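Hey all, quick one. A colleague (J.T.) asked me to put the 2-acetamido-2-deoxy-beta-D-glucopyranose job into the tracker so the inputs and the structure tokens live in one place instead of scattered across chat threads. No bug as far as I know, just bookkeeping. Sequence used:
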Amino acid sequence: MKISFLMLMVLSLFLFPNGIHKSLASRPSVVSIGSILRLNSTTGGVSDVAIHAAVDDINSDPTVLNGTTLRVDTRDTNCDDGFLGMVQALQFMETDVIAIIGPQCSPIAHIISYVANELQVPLMSFASDATLSSIQFPYFMRTMPSDLYQMAAVAAVIDYYQWKIVTAIYVDDDYGRNGIAALDDELTARRCKISYKAGFRSNAKKSELLNLLVTVSNMESRVIILHTGSEPGLKLLSIANSLNMMGNGFVWIATDWLSAYLDANSSVPAETINGMQGVLTVRPHTLKSKMKSNLVSRWSSLSKKYNHSDLRISAYGFYVYDSVWTVARALDAFFDDGGRISFTNDSRHFKGFPLQVDLSTAILTLSENGELQRIHDKWLKTGDCSTDNTEFVDSNQLRLESFMGLFLICGAACVLALLIYFGIMLRQYLRHEQPGSAISVDAGSSTSKRSLRKFISFVDDRQPPPKKRRTMSLSRSSMPTTPMSNRPGTDIDIES
Ligand SMILES: *[C@@H]1O[C@H](CO)[C@@H](O)[C@H](O)[C@H]1NC(C)=O
Ligand SMILES: *[C@@H]1O[C@H](CO)[C@@H](O)[C@H](O)[C@H]1NC(C)=O
Ligand SMILES: *[C@@H]1O[C@H](CO)[C@@H](O)[C@H](O)[C@H]1NC(C)=O
Ligand SMILES: *[C@@H]1O[C@H](CO)[C@@H](O)[C@H](O)[C@H]1NC(C)=O
Ligand SMILES: *[C@@H]1O[C@H](CO)[C@@H](O)[C@H](O)[C@H]1NC(C)=O
């Protein structure tokens, strides 16, 4: 038994020599990572510069990934459109990227996390949404502190000042809702509570925000927590300022979106800043290090180089920079262990489930010939009905004319049924009137008119109301002599 086991071991050494001696030759010369960002947002821009800076640093550092060049492939995404964002991310995962930095937006991160598990592409996400966890999604790694931490900080401030009851204003998506849920937990643990939660759509109009703020200003609590993205957040603060909600008697606490925005955007006008005097915001703390000060000192030249010269570094920049380094170090350790990267077109990605291959191929073809955008515009676009209607009229759509055939058949059947009915009536009328026809001959010119009237009254009499008939039959049974006298035939039968 032992000997056969040993032989098996020896055999396996001969058969699989790769596991024994690591060879540097097996390292690929180029490895790609991907990033999914919203490039025209402040956070997206800062992240883009930070990723490129990290890739440059890694490639020029001989102690990490020696002999391998790291490349980055960036995709721009639109957070407001979950469907397109998802499809873009899926397509991206089908390419030869070994890890993805992002996606930047929580809603897309939620959708993608499920697929990342199947495709085995690690997501180094900076979605701070606390409900995304690597316990549920092994291929999801958060590289930002979860919202639980900043909500704990906010709750601690509220508790310190003994405010007890607060109002929460949040953007009504995964990020906003889950953040406020985390705040609720933290406040409950400190015996405080949110008395009113006001959610709004991320693309809410100014009038909606105005109504929301008017409602909020009538609430019991004047302590307002603002958890949203930077665009609607700034809009809301400026409206609040015009409603005099920034003065005495109000407390505003903005979550880290405000600090990230003010840190990064170098061109915020002074009036915007003045309009939000007194607002508290939180910022994640990063420790001092040589790497950090090095990055900060090079930032202005880096941001120029990568076309975001108007952006300064924010906390997001540090975390994203670290994410790329994490990927590089992990890859290095993986290669040191003799690991190899291989891409196959189907078997690795989709564990023997053929439908998924077809599905993703179908999505790819659709998006390649622009069909996907068209389908999306047609079915999922939300906008003014009036403008969309003109585009929507399509030769394949059902319109009133489409039912023309149906109407024709229906009409013809009705007319036919009416004709048959009149035919039957006419026959019965003629048969009924035959004996009396001789009497009515004298009428002259008005004969046809009279006979028409007669015919109509005949048709009218055809079906006397059922009540009448019942009384007739009753009278018939109570007075048997009348029918007997009418029918001489039966009389004879009875007598015989
Ligand atoms: C970014 O681009 C989208 C459309 O691609 C636009 O709707 C949005 O307003 C832009 N955001 C900024 C901050 O420029
Ligand atoms: C920075 O702030 C200015 C003024 O508010 C704004 O116009 C610009 O779009 C902002 N930049 C980014 C990248 O959001
Ligand atoms: C990197 O690789 C080169 C040859 O490919 C080798 O000469 C050099 O010593 C290596 N550097 C480190 C730090 O391992
Ligand atoms: C920056 O913009 C210029 C001009 O628009 C372009 O040629 C260049 O490739 C861009 N650089 C990067 C890193 O995107
Ligand atoms: C996967 O498919 C693409 C295009 O269909 C092809 O270029 C590539 O070589 C294939 N890769 C493998 C590993 O088969």
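Adding what we noticed when we looked at it: Residues 306-307 surround 2-acetamido-2-deoxy-beta-D-glucopyranose (ligand 4) (CB under 6 Å). Residues 404-433 form the longest helix (30 residues).
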